[in-house]
Write a structure and sequence with these properties.
The protein has 123 residues and is mainly beta. The protein is 0% helix and 62% strand. It has no helices and eleven strands. The strands form two sheets. Strands 2, 4, 5, 6, 9, 10 and 11 form a seven-stranded mixed β-sheet that branches. The radius of gyration is 15 Å and the shape is elongated. The model has no long low-confidence stretch (mean pLDDT 96).
């Protein structure tokens, strides 16, 4: 059983900060890519940031300079530090991970999603 569990969402005022965490659990051998996506009401889910096992990052233009993604490879956990939050950052933030899962003697690749955590930026 593989799970991605997000935490850290909540209500924050414009200009404030939040730190999201996503921990993967299960019989996981390794992870290459981990990242965050978000979806605002009535809008398509979009990429926020990704990070590889070697620390190579990619950010959406809308969050560059404000958000920082990081990871702990030993714990297979990814973080998203969000600063200078804007109302347009509001949405459900989903953790995503590419995982190699151990099944007996086999190593199976899969793409996994968390259930999401709500981030609301409002006065």
């Amino acid at each position: 059983q593989v799970q991605l569990v997000e935490s850290g969402g909540g209500l924050v005022q414009p200009g404030g900060s939040l730190r999201l965490s996503c921990a993967a659990s299960g019989r996981i051998f390794s992870s290459n890519m981990m990242g965050w996506y978000r979806q605002a009401p009535g809008k398509q889910r979009e990429l926020v940031a990704t990070i590889t096992i070697l620390g190579i990052t990619n950010y959406a233009d809308s969050v560059k300079g404000r958000f920082t993604i990081s990871r702990d490879n030993a714990k297979i956990t990814v973080y998203l530090q969000m600063n200078s939050l804007k109302p347009e950052d509001t949405g459900v933030y989903y953790c995503n991970a590419e995982l190699w899962v151990v099944d007996g003697s086999r190593h199976l690749w899969g793409n996994y999603w968390g259930q999401g955590t709500q981030v609301t930026v409002s006065s």
